[in-house]
Amino acid sequence: MKFRMKTLAAAAALAFAGTAHAQISGNVVKIGVLNDMSSLYADLGGQGSVLAAKMAIEDFKAKDKGLTVEVISADHQNKPDVATQIANKWIDAEGVDVIVDVPNSGVALAVNEVVRNKQKVFINSGAASSDLTGAKCSPYTVHWTYDTWMLANGTGKAIVKTGGDTWFFITADYAFGHALERDTSAVVTKNGGKVLGDVKVPLNTQDFSSFLLQAQSSKAKIIGLANAGGDTINSIKQAAEFGIVKGGQNLAGLLVFLSDVHGIGLEKAQGLILTSTFYWDMNDQTRAFAKRFMAQNGGKAPTMVQAGVYAGVLHYLKAVAAVKSDDGKKVVDEMKKLPTDDPLFGKGSVRQDGRVIHNAYLFEVKKPSESKYPYDYYKLRATIPAAEAFRPLNEGGCSFVK
Amino acid sequence: MNTQALFGQLLIGLINGSFYALLSLGLAVIFGLLNVINFAHGAQYMMGAFMAYLLLEKLGLGYWWALLVVPLIVGISGVLIERLMLSRLYKLDHLYGLLFTFGLALIIEGIFQQQFGSAGVPYPTPEILQGGQKLDFMYLPNYRAWVIAASAVICFATWFVIERTKLGAYLRAATENPTLVQAFGINVPLMITLTYGAGVALAGLAGVFAAAMNQVAPQMGSSLIIVVFAVVVIGGMGSIMGSILTGFGLGMVEGLTKYFYPEASNTVIFVIMAIVLLIRPQGLFGQR
Question: Does the predicted interface ipTM exceed a cut of 0.95?
Answer without folding.
Answer: no
